[in-house]
Design a protein that fits this description.
The structure is a single chain. The protein contains one helix and no strands. The chain is mostly helical. The longest helix has 14 residues. It is rod-shaped, with a radius of gyration of 20 Å. 0% of the residues are buried.
Length: 49
């Protein structure tokens, strides 16, 4: 149980919050496959490129 294990229900319901950062090179040569991969990742992460 929560009490037996010295645990509590959190107010916001979150156990852990984190974020990631995605970087890309502005000077690298981006071929079509690399641009498509970046677009797919960006879409999944809902970020703008």
């Amino acid at each position: 149980s929560l009490r037996a294990n010295h645990l509590a229900i959190l107010q916001d319901g979150l156990i852990h919050r984190s974020e990631a950062t995605l970087f890309r090179s502005r000077t690298a040569a981006w071929d079509t496959a690399a641009r498509e991969s970046l677009a797919a990742i960006s879409e999944r992460l809902q970020v703008l490129t």
